[in-house]
Amino acid sequence: MDNGQACTNGLSSTACDVSAVPGEEIAAICKAFGNDKHRMLDILRTVQDRYHCISPSTMDRVATETGLSRIQVEGVASFYSFLSLSPKGRITIRLCDDIVDRYAGLAEVTAAFEQVLGIRVGETSPDRAFSLEYTPCIGMCDQAPAAMINDVVLTRLTADTARAAAEALKAGLTPEHLVSERFSDLTPHERANRMVDNNVRHAGEVLLGPVPEDAGLNKAAAMMPAQIVTAIEDSGLRGCGGAGFTTGRKWRFAAGERAERRFILCNADEGEPGTFKDRVLLSERPHLLIEGMTIAARAVGASEGILYLRGEYVYLRELVEQVLEERRRRGLLGKDILGVRGFDFDIRLQLGAGAYICGEEGALISSCEGLPGEPKTRPPFPVNRGYLGHPTVVNNVETFCHAARILDRGAGWFHAMGTEGSHGTKLFSICGDCLNPGIYELPYGHSVREILEMAGGQDAAAVQVGGPSGAMIARDSFHRKLTFDDLATGGAIIVFNGERNILEIVEYYMSFFVHESCGYCTPCRVGNVFLQKAIGKFRKGLANPEDIEYLKELSGTIIETSRCGLGMTSPNPILTTLKNFPLVYSALTKPNKDGIRDTFDIQSAIDGARKIAKRRSYIFDRDFTQ
């Protein structure tokens, strides 16, 4: 998440576009956000979008206007991958580098862009017209290869379409022109759907079938807050982001806290590679999402909400803002909602800036507070002291949508679907080596084999359930059920056929976790680098049988000592493939000739880890220990 080197004193005053910008313009940007330090991410995103760089002088002025130190501002600016301390092109092309995109032809797409633009990935053209770079999964795995061009998304790229797009941009056309010649005449909903297909393959009874308008909110307005919480509890609804915590219980905890302010936060930062269900709900059911957040506010006594939209979904920003404004006009947001005195609630949109870790609720709260997206120490939990120290409910898009439907149709209706302990329906994001990638809304309890048959993935040799932090299973496990008690998943199901290299996939996923670590704790930041290097050793045929035990032991250490969920799950690509594909590893090992293992130099290893993770170790680095 480090974005290169800062502009140095050795560069000319025009090295960053913003260096030559009068401080008054930066001050005006800060003022637009109330000079509020908690809106730091909004301030810096605006600077980045307008001037394509965040220079030292800009950080100084932002610090002055918001009452912070320069180092605090730089800490935010250097954390998020969509912010840059070095000059970027007026058009930044971010090619999705997910493993699914690689298998779908990313190399050919990359070559086409490089050839036409005359730059390589990681470079900016001399005239600063273009920057070309890779970015992790952007939530378009069902239509890969994909790319972000400024705020525009292109999907199903080929070498030919990539070349045509690059030539059009080089000829002076805007990224929006690549979507439609009459882009400005389209509605926000039309723009979003011109860029990205929702690929709803199976619409279920709860979310993607017919949904009456605000039926749940109308019923909630006539109920006491405690009755709403009880209905959610009785429904059996559990968080749909992967952890599966009981939703009603979370709401009850927040409602029970003594506090003058409470907050509802929607986590729309689904960054898990292979997951794109919330993207579809944001496009297909934006009103249902806001309805669910408003019901939660009624239940817990919150008057303020934040919808945290991942930076990769910036193409949906106008659509979400239009929905929020429409609901304000209709009396469904704001003061005395639906005429109920004291039922006050409104929502602001917070756009992320490229940080997978912000999908973790503590890191998301930090990001909303204008801080680097680092997880918070727990306890206290968000329901006790969350955003700005106040009780905070954090649920994801799918969970809030379910809550609105439960208030409409009743707890018993929802509870009757699915299986014991896993009630209701689930949105599955299916992609990879299958004929019909897309979104499937199904009751809990289907087997992996049944899902594969629906999606046309009968040739699957391996399936990644729950994304990289989940489990990679083999054919002998395709009978297992998609439930919280068997194969739990936030929704991602990635299909791989027999032609794919398991260790190539594992190595990619480990590189993803290395890149996305927030850098706070050594076990996650450095340990994952060691794991990645070890997998590289296997791929080169240099591993010995003892290396298998090394992988297990190091994975266990990372899981036990990491601060947040990223480190606790990052070794899963290795652990689950060791368990389910043991022959892949054993076939690539050979004993040492002398039976002696190499010695281990912690400083040498950390030096390599530092370069890859772009973070220093607060425990082992000489700079910090001397």
Automatic annotation (TrEMBL):
Family of the protein in this entry: Belongs to the complex I 51 kDa subunit family.
Keyword Iron-sulfur (UniProt): yes
Naturally occurring in which organism (per UniProt): Roseibium marinum
InterPro entries xrefs: NADH-UbQ_OxRdtase_51kDa_CS, Nuo51_FMN-bd, Nuo51_FMN-bd_sf, NuoE_dom, NuoE_N, Nuop51_4Fe4S-bd, Nuop51_4Fe4S-bd_sf, Thioredoxin-like_sf
Cofactor entry: FMN; [4Fe-4S] cluster
One Pfam family it belongs to: Complex1_51K
Keywords: 4Fe-4S, Iron, Iron-sulfur, Metal-binding
Name of the protein described by the UniProt record: [NiFe] hydrogenase diaphorase moiety large subunit
Residue intervals of the NADH-ubiquinone oxidoreductase 51kDa subunit iron-sulphur binding domain: 503-548
Signal peptide positions on this chain: none
UniProt-listed CDD domains: TRX_Fd_NuoE
Record-level Gene Ontology MF annotations: 4 iron, 4 sulfur cluster binding; FMN binding; metal ion binding; NADH dehydrogenase (ubiquinone) activity
Cross-referenced SMART domains: NADH_4Fe-4S
Role summary: NDH-1 shuttles electrons from NADH, via FMN and iron-sulfur (Fe-S) centers, to quinones in the respiratory chain. The immediate electron acceptor for the enzyme in this species is believed to be ubiquinone. Couples the redox reaction to proton translocation (for every two electrons transferred, four hydrogen ions are translocated across the cytoplasmic membrane), and thus conserves the redox energy in a proton gradient.
